Amino acid sequence: MHDIRWIREEPQGLARALTRRGTDAGEAQALVEALKALDERRRAGIVKLEELQARRNSASKEIGVAKKAGNNSLAEALMAEVAALKTDIPALEEDVKVAEAELNETLAAIPNVPLDIVPNGADEHDNVEIARVGTKPAFGFAPKQHFELGEGLGQMDFEVAAKLSGARFVVLKGQLARLERAIGQLFINTHVDEHGYTEVAPPILVKDEAMFGTAQLPKFREDQFRAGEDMWLIPTAEVPLTNLVAQSILSEEELPLRFTALTPCFRAEAGSAGRDTRGMIRQHQFNKVEMVSITTPENSLEEQERMLACAQNVLNKLGLHHRVVTLCTGDMGFASARTFDIEVWLPGQDAYREISSVSTCTDFQARRMNARYRPKDAKSPRFVHTLNGSGVAVGRALVAVLENYQNEDGSVTVPEALVTYMGGLTRIERA
Fold first, then answer.
1. Domains along the chain?
2. Which of 103, 189, 402, 421 could be 182's S-S partner, Cβ–Cβ 3.0 to 4.6 Å?
């Protein structure tokens, strides 16, 4: 959500930001003008309303004075004026209410402003690689994709899942089910024990307000799974974790707050028809470890770098080769002001695939959920900065482990970091 005062004072700032994100310059300018008109209508209505209310109050007092003075004609005229005002004021109040609702609805549909340091670009082809970690594994055979390995092991079943729930679901069995659980446990324990995050077990059903606060609603309604009149299955634990500070004023001493959670996540994938239809890359239900930080504006960029390092650390524990890219303006998420993506190497696909996104949302989400803090020696509270990052997607990490640790006979070596979680098992083979 954007500050209308900023748009009022620097309208071209928003127009430039939208243009950097790929909006046509003319459309961006038209949107800014529409916002200014709505704001002016709302403000003019408020001023007029205050004038009418003040006049109603003063006229009411004048009626008594006129009656005491025996000036009945003046008293009657004043009473007629007050009666008219009692009709005009509610109509004007409604007009102000409508203008404010239209303004807020329009503001809610505008993406965050990219930071100046974000590279300009149209899509993923313009993202900028900033680091590579580790080396690609070498195989003396043609590596298989994860679903070939999982099905060959007899422990990954998409057909049964389709009978139960439809496309984009999977049933994991036996050692693969335990391996996925082990990966999630390694990740969450690392963030708690080594990175200082507070583990949270949040609800996975949330209200409209929570989804609005983190900007899943209203723009991405079709990507969500609804559960009842005003409840939604979470697409990511970012939603409940960030909303832990909604409608609150924190002290500066409390910041930063760092939360992590391992939860199932649910996404309709409405815009991905035909993409990744085989396997576990793009599913309606998946497990993910999420990291959320709440901090001051001065520390949000440093905090984002810290979160990126935390996400990379869990991949390093698994010995997974990956690269880090900075997303360009045209590829960033709706609420993000800057995003780093971590892309893990998948030998079976011969490609890098996203396994984590780490974003700073500046005060964009905080304004939507009214999350503030009180700086030291300051009279007025300020909006916090919110950050989120996958730490990381458990299902995709399972995919990466299977493909990177596969053997020629179709078995999979268990990464050393997971052996304890697997009860000492070092190799997954077909039963």
1. 4-108 (1.10.287.40), 124-428 (3.30.930.10)
2. 421
